[in-house]
Design brief:
The complex is a heterodimer. Chain A is α/β, with parallel strands linked by helices. Chain A is built from three helices and six strands, in the order βββαβαβαβ. Chain A has one domain: Transcription Regulator spoIIAA, CATH 3.30.750. Helix content of chain A is 36%, strand content 33%. Chain A is globular and about 40 Å long. The model of chain A has no long low-confidence stretch (mean pLDDT 96). By secondary structure, chain B is α+β, with helices and mostly antiparallel strands. In chain B, a hairpin with a 2-residue loop joins strand 3 and strand 4. The longest helix of chain B is centred in the N-terminal third of the chain and has 21 residues. The chains are: A alpha/beta, B alpha+beta. Chains A and B meet through helix 2 and helix 3 of A and helix 2, helix 3, helix 5 and helix 6 of B.
């Protein structure tokens, strides 16, 4: 798999999908004009990759400032796929970073965590600003 | 005459506590500009992080709602590019200690009952129920006639910590004007 690196803009997050080392990261604002147009080419191959993974270790880093409801749908797809992958013998650890005081992003992390049994998720508060 | 007209418009908005108002064709480019400016304004005013993110989120959902669903639009599909401009109103303001965001646009008459039912249902839910509906809708995918995730109004209800209200007014045989106000 080719690594994917996309710089952040005002409307979409920075993407750093390093397949070679199984380290994945999304960070920033997410309210692209069309969530599927932006995310499908990134997320579809990632989900196929997860489906074919065996006894692997993978880390996923999320640090959102804000995501809109259409982006939330993509995140559910990613988290559901990771949970399934972790349930079949892979080790997945997620770090969910939110800005100190941002209740909404903290809650979003807690909401994802609620549905995860096999993925280890750590909620990390970053400094304000 | 000109100065009276312009100051009357400005005074009218001031009286209502409106600090930002857009009426016209809403596009993704307009939305980008509004979002960037709003971010700076909220920072300048030192608005609390949760209130600021709430206002920002509602503005994004309202604007995309106009772009996707306003029934008052101008289209052209000639040659290489298709144009579809949707008309709507977006206002941001403050009364007393509360911030508010208002949007309005025309909708097709046949959609008004479905929208009323959906918003009335959402309005009756508590935070826990809203979150459950949010998750369920996101997992099951968007409704057939939706261009987004179909949870925009649930997102608004979750962010509008001081509630939301909506109203309709018949415009002509086929259209109804729809207005929505979220208080944060």
């Amino acid at each position: 798999m080719d690594n994917i690196k996309i710089n952040a803009t005002d409307r979409h997050p920075a993407i750093d999908f390093d397949y070679a080392s199984n380290r994945f990261s999304i960070s920033g604002y997410s309210y692209p004009e069309n969530a599927r147009d932006f995310y499908d080419p990134i997320v579809d191959p990632f989900i196929s990759y997860l489906e074919n993974l065996n006894s692997a270790s993978l880390s996923f880093h999320c640090a959102f400032t804000y995501f809109h409801s259409s982006s939330a749908q993509v995140l559910y797809r990613i988290f559901d796929a990771m949970e399934e992958c972790a349930a079949t013998g892979n080790t997945i650890s997620v770090t969910w970073v939110y800005e100190a005081g941002d209740d909404s992003m903290q809650e979003a992390g807690e909401d994802f965590a609620e549905d995860l049994e096999n993925v280890a998720i750590e909620l990390v508060e970053s400094e304000a600003g | 005459m000109l100065i009276e007209q312009v100051t009357a418009l400005r005074d009218h908005m001031n009286t209502d506590g409106v600090s930002f108002c857009f009426t016209g064709f809403m596009t993704e480019e307009v939305l980008s500009g509004i979002a960037q400016t709003l971010k700076k304004k909220l920072e300048l005013d030192k608005v609390d992080i949760n209130t600021a993110r709430g206002i920002f989120s509602v503005v994004i959902e309202f604007s995309q709602n106009i772009i996707r669903y306003s029934a008052e639009n101008k289209t052209s599909d000639s040659g290489q590019s298709s144009i579809d401009l949707r008309y709507g109103v977006l206002a941001i303001g403050q009364d007393e200690n509360d911030h508010f965001v208002v949007c309005g646009n025309m909708i097709h008459k046949e959609d008004s009952q479905r929208l009323t039912d959906s918003l009335t249902h959402i309005k009756g839910l508590d935070r826990k129920e809203l979150k459950a509906l949010y998750k369920k809708t996101l997992r099951e995918g968007p409704p057939e006639n939706s261009k987004g995730a179909g949870v925009g109004f649930v997102e608004v209800a979750l962010r509008a910590t001081k509630g939301f209200e909506f109203d309709f007014q018949e415009s002509d045989d086929s259209n109804v004007f729809f207005a929505l106000k979220a208080t944060i």
